[in-house]
Amino acid sequence: MNNAPSTQRSISSSSDVRVLRRPSRRILVTGGAGFLGSHLCERLLAEGHQVLCLDSFATGHTRNISHLLRNPAFTLVRHDVVEPFAAEVDEIYNLACPASPPDYQADPVHTTKTNVLGALNLLELAKQRNIKIFQASTSEVYGDPHVHPQPESYWGNVNPIGPRSCYDEGKRCAETLFFDYHRRYGVEIKVVRIFNTYGPRMRPEDGRVVSNFIVQALKGDDITIYGDGSQTRSFCFVDDLIDGFVRLMNAPKSVTGPVNLGNPGEFTIGELARQVIDLTGSRSKIVNLALPIDDPRQRRPDIAIAARDLDWQPKVPLAEGLKETIRYFDRLLTLECQDLAE
Ligand code: NAD
Ligand code: UDP
Q1: Which residues line ligand 1 (CB under 6 A)?
Q2: pLDDT tens, 193-252?
Q3: What is the domain count for the chain?
Q4: Are 218 and 329 in contact (CB under 8 A)?
Q5: Looking at the domain assignment, is residue 17 inside a domain?
Q6: Which ligand lies nearest to the CA atom of residue 195 in the structure?
Q7: Domain range holding 304?
Q8: Would you say residue 171 lies in a domain?
Q9: What ipTM describes this predicted complex?
Q10: Residue 322 domain-assigned?
């Protein structure tokens, strides 16, 4: 997908060295034009930092960051993390990677490269500059878990050769690299394992369950439950998650993670579908489709470590977060209809 903005400022090629001369911290956010990355960029700018947003626009979108392009503290670079990158920054948040199963399975080899080579390239940058680096890992490192809820000490149950493996094993290998750079070279690391997070700026077509159900409900299309809908997930609202990111990055050096961030409220996918129908007042009907291969049966974070080390817990209940997300998609779909009509 080519979503680069025509009004893009300060674009560098992969070999450029960016120099940001301002007093506050200079922070590199990879995947900054994506769902979570754009919220993180916004939060860091609000705290007075300089943000260098790096994105390949594989799954990111200009509408997520267009309002930031006028901010002189914000710089956008189009780059693929598979290639090395140099920048004079003080901290790195590595979020670059498609997160939705259809997205990361569309080019699985590139997904593995993004996770593994991306981590390697950014860890090298952190090592060279002696700066701390944050990794967006995932609850997928637990695979289809035999331990419930999942504490960080659980090593997981992951298929190494299935269609989800490019993501799951890629993220596991990235964690390995982070801890080896920490032990071998003393790089300061912050590794977070994110559980399903939703909110405004998910792509309507990205295929994840919350965006799918809301868009289907708003359009009056069938709500597509994969399998019988008894599988569970725990859904965290984006603002809660971003707060956890910043707390982890600013925690003492000894707090490396991995630390689970997610909302321990656990819902079946059938319950989620019914909530979305209720909140939208939709007349959509539910249809059951085939369950994807290796779809995890259950997911719920044990967040005791986040509570202890970061004094963090999610605040936004599912119904509240869904209402805000529904408002976002409602506006977006209305705008898309207007664009089509013009
Ligand atoms: P997203 O797909 O909306 O955003 C990912 C961003 O990374 C996009 O802007 C995309 O263009 C960019 N990107 C992808 N490959 C790249 C590459 N090779 N080089 C440079 N940029 C690249 O997904 P998201 O939900 O915002 O997820 C962000 C991060 O959080 C990902 O690393 C994902 O694995 C992790 N995560 C997210 C969730 C969640 O529920 N949202 C759960 C677990 C982990
Ligand atoms: N899912 C579903 N209908 C959809 C999209 C997803 O029933 O339209 C299911 C999917 O099979 C999984 C759960 O919802 O059991 C969460 O899927 P998602 O892709 O959002 O995240 P992940 O599987 O990575 O947790």
Answers
A1: 30-31, 33-37, 55-60, 80-82, 95-99, 103, 114, 118, 136, 138, 194, 196-197
A2: 999 999 999 999 999 999 999 999 999 999 999 999 999 999 999 999 999 999 999 999
A3: 1
A4: yes
A5: no
A6: 1
A7: 26-199+237-263+294-316
A8: yes
A9: 0.98
A10: no
